[in-house]
Write a structure and sequence with these properties.
2 domains; Rossmann fold; 205 residues; two-stranded antiparallel ribbon; alpha/beta
Length: 205
């Protein structure tokens, strides 16, 4: 394996805790089965990812209300209470990020599936986001992981070579897509595992 010179971090699930359960578990009074049905049938992950690729939040909400008018109140909560779904930093991963940022031989950027409309909230809330050399936000670029074009866009924007770059993401689908275009990868599970995998890639913390 070639020497790693660049690290590309995912954000949600790796450095930032985000979970719609923080809103809907209360809405459904602790009924996880009912909440999961809502996520599987009404406000689905595919629907949310469409907004990550640049579709307007208000239009997405109106589209879904038109499809499921009987669930209008719950649907409008998804983006109406979105900030409540945003949890805390994943502290131990942020510590790893800070250690990596001190290494002069590494360039550190981020690549995130995130709506352009909600990302400014994260920028205001999480100071460490401003420490990256740059962040590629899917909603701004009008595409998203796991489509190959967003990985290539990231490499091109920062003048990275795939074989010198390491991508970290908690979504295996996204990891495999990056691997397909020649980027080294780590499937994030937890901060301890991340430390071990970084060392396995000859990156000492």
């Amino acid at each position: 394996m070639g020497k790693i010179k660049n690290i590309i971090f995912d954000l949600g699930g790796v450095l930032i805790d985000w979970n719609p359960e923080y809103v809907y578990l209360e809405v459904f009074q602790g009924d996880r089965k009912k909440m999961q049905w809502f996520f599987d049938k009404i406000c689905t992950m595919d629907w949310n990812e469409n907004q990550d690729a640049g579709y307007p939040l208000q239009q997405a909400t109106e589209d879904r209300v038109k499809m499921f008018p009987q669930y209008e109140q719950w649907i409008r909560m998804y983006y109406g209470r979105w900030e409540e779904m945003l949890g805390d930093p994943i502290t131990e991963t942020v510590k790893i990020l800070n250690q990596l940022l001190k290494k002069p031989n590494l360039r550190i950027v981020a690549l995130t599936n995130w709506s352009a409309e909600t990302f400014p909230v994260a920028l205001d809330r999480f100071e460490f986001l401003h420490r990256f050399e740059g962040i590629v936000v899917s909603g701004i670029e009008k595409t998203r992981k796991p489509f190959p074009d967003i990985y290539q866009l990231t490499l091109d924007r920062f003048d990275f070579k795939a074989e010198e770059s390491l991508f970290i993401d908690d979504n295996l689908r996204n990891v495999l897509a990056a691997k397909d275009i020649g980027i080294h990868t780590i499937h994030f599970k937890n901060p301890i595992d991340l430390r071990l995998n970084l060392e396995a890639n000859a990156i000492k913390l």
